[in-house]
Design goal:
The complex is a heterodimer. By secondary structure, chain A is of the alpha/beta class. Chain A contains 10 helices and 10 strands. The longest helix of chain A is centred in the C-terminal third of the chain and has 17 residues. The chains are: A alpha/beta, B mainly alpha.
């Protein structure tokens, strides 16, 4: 039983820019899928169609039994509660503390007024702290988010999404702004969350080698169309060149081979 | 540097020169040629011209420049060097100052509350375009009419007095703050808003958990600025709309008692109050920032 299903989804921005055309795929519960493709190929659009930050122009998207494109306001909120999202630029409220940002993950579960005044239960706060402990951020709990390093900010982002108790986590270029060591920490955490908590992960990645190492399955996207959808280990070098529409030796990942 | 210079020298410039634009003097132009630059130039020229015409078309009567300058200095000396109260007591002035302060504070508080909700409807990043445009043009209209005029218009409805003054000042303050607040809100990074939206947060939750924390220090700065403006406006309407306060005393001292010394004293009091306000607001802003 797939948790997420795309059926012939297309997206056109402003009636002219085609971002997705006829994209169909499904994701099983517990899967770790990575979407790769050049900039502007529609990776972010796919993720944002899932939680309706972007409205698909055509086609159906099913998540956990909900027809997302037809969901009303209330149903959409229900759907969004179950889908966590982490971002390239972390998207935290910089002026608030780490723990406040983590607790933001609960807003969808709270009444409007409780959320407005920031009235969280003791239990929610304890959960937040144990999530921070899991990600090694307990010491930073009361720091303002703009005092943190990039890697720490991204871990706050992960903590916030976990706070939602999500079924699915969408990762939009989670490591594109991080150094290699912080990137590894983040990817290891995501992998751990996927395995231990059985939360489905869909990650947009620019680093093909990272995608192949961490994801079970890879979807290759070129100008809004799926050109590869299969297990990570079956992704051939020639297919990578096809996805990025470039010639042998012209990708940054080729550098390693030129030294061998 | 030497090698770079040689390397750069070997680049054929004829290929590039197609893209280069020249100024009228034949130098390579670096500034983008935009409409706004041309408009700015035109505005400056127009202003200079108007200034010239203004000075030429004054009716100078038969003022003796030397004598006029002498009297001005004389009056200024009485005004600023010999301040003295003769018709009011210090306690009376202090009370009047408090009245003016209250007029300013009340209208700022009302204006801030109205302005906040107006700004939520007006800020383009959190409102829909139609609503935003409606609110925008509405407040632009209110702002186009000067504060004092609003107070005078409202005296028709509320009668001369402090009610008309507060309502009139509130009117303009709210419109001013809608613009200031909405621009503060538009400045904030919309990324956090997106993140909260994605997690299923409701509109008001996003406003108070992301928008307000991100823009509160700007909003406070604008509110203080508006308070200073309202305080000085309250002085003016004190006389113009009979709202009382130190403006009324100032008016009486000038137009009724013709007492330059009393005027000077009140002017010093007002200046001191404004400076004190400014110092206070700087302190508060530093704490919040």
């Amino acid at each position: 039983m797939p948790i997420l299903e795309f059926q012939n989804v297309s997206k056109v921005y402003n009636g002219v820019t085609k971002a997705l055309s006829n994209v169909s795929f499904s994701v099983d519960e517990g899967d770790f899928v990575s979407i790769i493709g050049p900039s502007g190929s529609g990776k972010s659009t796919i993720l944002r169609c899932i939680n309706r930050l972007v409205d698909a122009t055509q086609g159906e998207i099913y998540f956990d039994g909900h027809d997302i494109n037809k969901a009303g306001k209330q149903e959409l909120r229900e759907v969004r509660k179950k889908i966590g999202m982490i971002f390239q630029h972390y998207n935290l409220v910089d002026r608030l503390s780490v723990i406040e940002n983590v607790l933001h993950g609960r807003l969808g579960h709270k009444s409007t007024i409780a959320g407005v005044i920031g009235a969280y239960t003791e239990q929610e706060k304890e959960t937040a702290f144990s999530i921070l402990a899991m990600l090694g951020l307990t010491e930073q709990a009361y720091k303002r988010c703009d005092e943190l390093s990039g890697g720490q900010k991204q871990r706050v982002g992960i903590a916030r999404s976990l706070m939602q108790e999500p079924r699915l986590i969408l990762c939009d270029e989670p490591i594109a702004s991080l150094d290699p060591s912080a990137s590894k920490v983040i990817m290891d955490h995501l992998s751990e969350i996927n395995k231990a908590l059985k939360i489905t992960c869909i990650a947009n990645l620019h680093q093909v080698d990272v995608a192949m190492k961490y994801a079970k399955r890879i979807i290759g996207l070129t100008s809004g169309q799926i050109v590869y959808d299969g297990p990570a280990q079956d992704l051939s070098r020639s297919k990578i060149y096809e996805i990025y529409q470039s010639n042998e030796g012209e990708l940054i990942t080729d550098i390693r081979y030129s030294y061998e | 540097m030497g090698e770079l210079a040689i390397a750069l020298h070997s680049i054929d410039l004829s290929e590039q020169s197609k893209y280069m634009k020249k100024t009228r003097k034949g130098k390579i132009r670096t500034a983008a040629k935009t409409k706004s630059a041309a408009a700015l130039k035109l505005t400056v020229i127009a202003l200079l011209l108007l200034t010239a015409i203004g000075f030429l078309s004054f009716d100078y009567k038969k003022v003796n420049a030397a004598q006029a300058a002498f009297s001005t200095v004389q009056n200024a000396r009485v005004l600023f060097a010999q301040p003295r109260l003769s018709y009011n007591t210090v306690a009376g002035i202090a009370r009047a100052l408090f009245v003016t302060f209250s007029l300013g504070a009340l209208s700022t508080i009302f204006g801030a509350i109205l302005g906040f909700f107006g700004a939520l409807m007006c800020a383009r990043n959190i409102s829909n375009p139609t609503l935003s445009n409606i609110v925008r043009s509405f407040v632009a209209f209110i702002r186009a009419v000067p504060t004092i005029l609003w107070v005078l218009i409202l005296t028709v409805a509320a009668g001369l007095g402090s009610v008309a003054a507060v309502v009139g000042l509130t009117f303009h303050s709210a419109a001013y703050l809608v613009k200031a607040y909405s621009e503060s809100i538009e400045e904030i990074d919309s990324a956090a808003i997106e993140a909260l939206k994605a997690s299923g947060a409701s509109y008001w939750q996003i406003i108070f958990q992301a928008v307000v924390p991100s823009s509160i220090s700007y909003m406070l700065a604008w509110t203080f600025l508006r308070f200073e403006i309202n305080f000085t406006n309250a002085i003016a309407v004190g006389a113009a709309a009979g709202a009382g306060g130190i403006g009324y005393d100032l008016f009486m001292a000038g137009s009724f008692y013709f007492s330059l010394r009393e005027l000077g004293f009140i002017t010093y009091v007002v200046a001191a109050a404004v400076i004190a306000l400014e110092a206070l607001s700087t302190k508060v802003k530093a704490k919040v920032g």
